[in-house]
Amino acid sequence: MTPHNHHHHPKSAPIPLIIVDGFLGCGSAVLWGKFSRFLNISSEKCENRRIIFVRVGPVSSLHDRACELYYALTGGTVDYGADHAKLHKHARYGRVNKAGMYPQWSPEQPLHFLGHSIGGSTIIKLQFLLKQRYFGPHVHPDMVLSVNTISAPFRGTQLVYILGECADAAPAVRPLSIGSLLSKWVHLVAFFSPLLPELLDLHVEARSLSFRDMSPVSLLKQLWKSDWAESHDAAPYDMTFEAADERESTLEGRAHPRTFYRSHVASLNSRLLTSSLPTSPLSSILSQPFRLLSHPISTFDYSVIQPAPSFLENDALILSSVSRSSDVVKNTSSTVYSSTLREEYKENDGIVPLFSQWHPLPCRSTQCRHFEHSKNFTLPSPDPGTWNVYHMDAANHISLAPCWTGNFQQRYFWTSLGQWLYSIDDHRHLHNSFSTDELDQYN
Ligand SMILES: [Zn+2]
Ligand SMILES: [Zn+2]
């Protein structure tokens, strides 16, 4: 196929984009705003891309969220898996999806995915489960054509320890911490869930936490000490470095050779001239909580975490002969760590440090290309099996999504994402026509 007849060909519809929200996200298009105008800006010649928002458990573990995402798309009763359910003491089956949002989903009809925050980590978990044929022999990692993430905590974040997770005994939660208050809120919302609006739907029916399934006395017990918050099957634990190390030990998140990967990494630092860009009053109000949280994240002492995260041994420290020689390290570990920690372990978007937003696994164990956002930036050609990492300065955890402000950063992001997805669609189109030709030779 030549570029000339390309335009005259009746093009197939663009491959739909699935959007997955982050922690406490409501999975609704309302907040995300008018982004689709910019996503489709380069689509004059064909129809607009279909966008599907999928709501999954806003406080649930990555495993539970990935299962809910799968069945929301294909339809049917959510099956968390017999072994998983037994191990984590909740029911095997969850809600019934009477109709799937994309029942034709298959290796032949794959989908694009975009996740904000743990929505990104959820997509990685989903592709890992597809690779394991978790939902049956018919599923395949090829069903995920592209993974696009914004500020995803692939490798965990120290914020969970700052907010309440015990640094040396996760998933235990410190009493009277913000994390502990959050777990009380979760139990109250879950208990009264049959009476509450859909916006507060926590997707926890498999745990029997509502007043239909548990007594007020049991609720009080859970408010005192929560089985949910202090389990290995909840979102906060999945954001610990321990959980991330567990995932990476099985090579979860290793790039699939036929999937396209792109991550967007936000940093509150402003090295370039981006700080001189006009900011709206709304943006500056929204950024305040992230500015407050950024300081404890950047000054966090990683050496207090037990078991020690694997990156402390392998990647986080700038190796120098002075600090690494002999057993001095053991005696003065905290001072050595804080003085020689690499920048990407301190720099953050107010929620997640940079190194964790890049991609799963350290750079030496995965294929990756890192780019700085700049004015005359040209999009690289799509290359499957490689993470394309985009750095954004002067941006916080929610600068791009989920709250629409319509500023330059957001318009630029959605326009460039739209172009990227079209080039992947084209790449696939070409690739498929070649492989059909190849097949024809053998038939
Ligand atoms: Zn579970
Ligand atoms: Zn990398």
Automatic annotation (TrEMBL):
Statement: the UniProt record of this protein carries the keyword Signal: yes
Assigned GO CC terms: extracellular region
Pfam families: Lip_C (PF24708)
Gene3D superfamilies: alpha/beta hydrolase (3.40.50.1820)
One annotated GO biological process: lipid metabolic process
Ranges of residues in domain Lipase-like C-terminal: 39-132
Origin superkingdom: Eukaryota
Localization per record: Secreted
This protein's UniProt keywords: Hydrolase, Lipid metabolism, Secreted, Signal
Keyword Hydrolase attributed: yes
GO MF, one example: hydrolase activity
PANTHER family: ALPHA/BETA-HYDROLASES SUPERFAMILY PROTEIN, ALPHA_BETA-HYDROLASES SUPERFAMILY PROTEIN
Annotated protein name in UniProt: Lipase-like C-terminal domain-containing protein
Organism this protein belongs to: Collybia nuda
